[in-house]
Amino acid sequence: MDWGEEAARRLTRIAEAASLPGPGVTRLPFTEEHRVAMGIITGWMEAAGLSVQMDAAGTLVGRREGPAGAKTLLIGSHQDSVPGGGAYDGIMGVVLGCLALEAVKDRPLNVAVEVLAFADEEGVRFPTALMGPRVLAGTFDAGTLAMQDRDGVSLRDALAGFGGEPDGLAQMKRRAEEIAGYLELHIEQGPVLEREDAALGLVTGICGIERLELRFTGSTGHAGTVPMDGRQDALVAAGRFVAEVPGMAREWDGLRATVGMLKVSPGAPNAIPDAVSLVLEVRSERDAERGAAVAEMGKRAAEIAERTGCGFEMEQTYQQPAVLCDPALSDVLARAGQGDLPTLPSGATHDASAMADLCPIAMLFVRCRDGVSHRPDEFASAADMGAAVDVLARALVSYEPA
Ligand code: HGY
Ligand code: MN
Ligand code: MN
User: Fold this and answer.
1) Interval between CA 337 and ligand 3 midpoint (Å)
2) Does the beta carbon of 121 lie inside 6 Å of ligand 1?
């Protein structure tokens, strides 16, 4: 079988069948689209000879038993997408894992293997993410079950309604000594492999993330009668800060800072804005630098607010530390790569970020056309996906857990 062409066929099918209408793929967790995807992924896992069940966190688990007492090697990624996202982000790692196991179905392995299709990595529907891997790693915060989506549905109710067991999550922590490691194959979502004319690359580490809500407060008034002098316009303060973010980010090598959400009130064309809240996201491979950058940006924001006669406060709403990939597990992929795979850091985060709290992790990137992701035109070629299946299949057959 041409594993790459099969991967392309399957990804096209699931993108069409399991998505809300509209450009690209929109498949949020614990939705009808997710349920359709579960049925399709079940077929992939069964074709690979895996036993299939959904765990309490809504993760679909396909398992191949190993020799008595053998450790389990985990392979996985996420089934969900961003709204109007691509057909490869996340789900590619699930289909390539299934195809590699299908390719070695009749070969003996030294480990048991599980393919994991996690429900929610993007954190779009709820202001939290990575429930699936965090439950396995024992780092899940049950308090997040109370978080609600835009319709006021709690994560708890959405999970229960999908057939998950919110009250069974605590018992799902895996025993680290039983797990050999976690491998995630993922589209690069950046331009590096394409620039290096490489189909595949080994990930060195995954950046850390911090998200902060910044609130600027001024005083509203009639846009036509209040003189320009002396206004306390919260949007002017926020706008001056947003305009400075790119320059501030460049002061730290490799740091990324983005303002992707902003709310204005009263939000009327004839009323001076008196309250603006925005979300600043800062990413870096180096947590200490990220912390220093966030502190400096907060300081600059406060100075801007003061100069504009506005109030200011900043609150951290999310953070996950940078994690390094395990050299020994990465070397298993490198040797299976039969040649020198280029290495690169990941600016995007992944389920592997959370799995690192349970076991060693390694990631294999697949070349991404034009470095475009989180967009309908995200694309990886069948040939490159086929190369990834070959590397993973060779890694599985040769793998000897430490
Ligand atoms: O935000 C990220 O890096 C990932 O796509 N959720
Ligand atoms: Mn993504
Ligand atoms: Mn992803």
Assistant:
1) 22
2) yes
Which ligand sits nearest to residue 121's alpha carbon?
1
Ligand nearest to the CA of 82: 2
Answer yes or no: are the C-beta atoms of 80 and 27 closer than 8 Å: yes
Identify the residue with better confidence: 128 or 31.
31
Q: Is the CB of 351 under 6 A from ligand 1?
A: no
Residue entry with tokens 């605590």? 170
Beta carbon of 120 within 6 Å of any ligand 1 atom: no
Compute the distance between CA of residue 38 and CA of residue 79 in angstroms, rounded to an integer. 9
Q: In the prediction, which pLDDT does 340 show?
A: 83
Q: Are 274 and 265 in contact (CB under 8 A)?
A: yes
**pLDDT at residue number 203:** 97
Rounded Cα gap, residues 208 and 372, in angstroms: 21
Give per-residue pLDDT as tens, 262-304: 999 999 999 999 999 999 999 998 999 999 999 999 999 999 9
Ligand 1 atom with the shortest distance to the CA of 189: 5
Does residue 280 have its Cβ closer than 6 Å to ligand 1?
Answer: no
End-to-end CA distance of the chain: 32
DSSP 303-368: HHHHHTT-EEEEEEEEEE--EEPPHHHHHHHHHHTTS---EEEESS--HHHHHTTTS-EEEEEE--
Q: Is pTM beyond 0.70 here?
A: yes
Range 245-271 average pLDDT? 96
Q: Tell me the best of 122, 184, 351 to mutate to test the pocket of ligand 1, counting ligand atoms within 8 Å of each CB and taking the most.
A: 122
Question: Which of the ligands is closest to the CA of residue 118?
Answer: 3
With CA atoms as reference, report the closest residue to 201 among 393, 368, 79, 353.
368
In whole angstroms, give the CA distance from residue 105 to residue 50.
9
Helix (H, G, I), strand (E, B) or coil at 115: strand
DSSP characters over 267-283: --TTB---EEEEEEEEE
CB 348 near ligand 1, within 6 Å: yes
Tokens linked to 193: 């492999």
Q: What is the mean pLDDT of the chain?
A: 97
Cβ of residue 349 lying under 6 Å from some atom of ligand 1: yes
With residue 48 as reference, give the H or E element that holds it: none
Instruction: Report the separation in Å between the CA atom of 347 and the middle of ligand 1, taken as the mean of its atom positions.
Output: 8
Whether 368 and 380 have beta carbons less than 8 Å apart is answered as yes
